[in-house]
Amino acid sequence: MTAFAYDGSKGERYLSLEMEAAGVEWIWNASLSQRETKDAAQASIVIAGFTLDMAKANARRMIREHAAELRNTAMAEYSAYEVGAWPLKVGQAKAFVDWDDAGQLGRKPDSGLLIGEATVAAVTERAVADRIILNSGLAEAFESTVAGVATKHKNAIEPLTTFAAVDAYDWSVGWPPASLTLFDMG
Prior knowledge:
Strand content: 5-15%
Radius of gyration: 25 Å
Shape: elongated
Number of domains: 2
């Protein structure tokens, strides 16, 4: 690695992502307070071509990746099969509760998943339906918060007019914890 003169005019945070994407080793040597690279010519080409729009795109990508990581972490303990059944369970639970709240008038809605779970768990069908509805609300709140925070941060980056402003923008705030420990549809 050799010293590389970089004036910082195009920021560091998102330019480093571009260097990585271009396969350029680009490190900060803290003991010497300087940038170092094995390929100064390639690093210069990347810097020359790096635009403010590219910095913003890299910031938006990091926000999307963070949102995806939160979602994946929150859902890590659930199997794809279980998650795939949730919309059906929620639909059955809502239909059952509507029917039950109306005094069980008319034809009982299909609630095979609820009946099966209630029978095995030795609880009422209503108890299963109420739990599913409550927890689906928690999942909806989590998802809407993640989506809203991601959109807020991506929108905040758009009007920025300098590399320094894009680099300095802190999109790490406002996210919910990546936990759905109270969430149990099963």
